[in-house]
Write the structure tokens for this entry.
Amino acid sequence: MSEPRAGSERLDLRRLLVLVRQRLRGGRRRVRAAAVPVVTAAVAAGLAWAVAFYVLGHSQPFFAPVAAWVCLGFSADREVRKVAELAIGVSLGVALGELVAYFLRTGVFQIMFVIVVGALLARFVDRGQMLTIQAGVQGIVIVALPVAAIDGPTGRWTDALVGGSFALLVAVLTPHDARRRARQLAGASLSDLSQMLETLAKGLRDGDPERMRDALALGRSTQGSLDDWASVVRNALQSARISPAARSYLPELSRLQRASTLADRAMRNARVIARRGHAAVEQGVADDRVADALDALAVAARRLGEALGAGRNTADAAQVLALVTSELDPDDVQSGGWQLQTLVILMRSLTIDLLQAAGLSAEEANHLLDP
């Protein structure tokens, strides 16, 4: 009984290592994307504190760096409008909280009052959701914390204004490209798909069911990147439609949005291939031709990700995919049984998704796969 248990523990450890490697890979991507925004936000927060402390003479300018950090955060997508919404919301909430705390002191009624008045006033000022949330939150912080206004009844409000002003300055001076983050996520997501397809190819070629399980674990762990890609490109499109400076980005952002939907569909197909492939390999079914086709699909997915990530033409990836289509005929693997034929049919569906992500229409992609 000890041998099967030991084998199961080794397999669990192997799967854990696969997931840890994927987590580390995703973590490194997030750190690279957030490094510059975090540093600029830190500089803005430090400068806001310095101005409030040394220039305005405030002894505890807590809200200056807080306002700068809240407005800027760790994201590179710093649209001036959104930063302005947060800056106004923070300043409005702190000002209202100062007035309530100064005239009405603190208590249950005061907290309810500052939320109602702050939220409704913010809704009157602008339609931004974050403006309303920050107005309520900062008002609660001022009223609920039993800290005396050391720098006068308007000290914390002016600190918030200083922090918000520095955040706006950073947002205005920092060049913003609505496509940048969407491109990064496109490249990362399709790189993940490529890695999964390579693992599937190795498992099918070697007849290794555990490698097929590894591929499935990889596929399941990458959904977060795909979801982020869809969310970021959707927000970028909304911003580009109302920003005259970013309207020229609309065609590429529309392509990235379409590619996001199709890449998500391709990844779901790849997971089904992993499950079917695992069952086939466990039954002793293996075929180098199908494995070679999976390797070719992995190359195409990587090239597609590189093209979308750099804003380049995707014709090279489409050409590789077009060559793969000649290898995806279920009749060619009849000798391998229905399991291999099922894998080929699923791979055809995945190829159609990638062809469309590369810019082909549904009709053009299906025509390439016609007998």
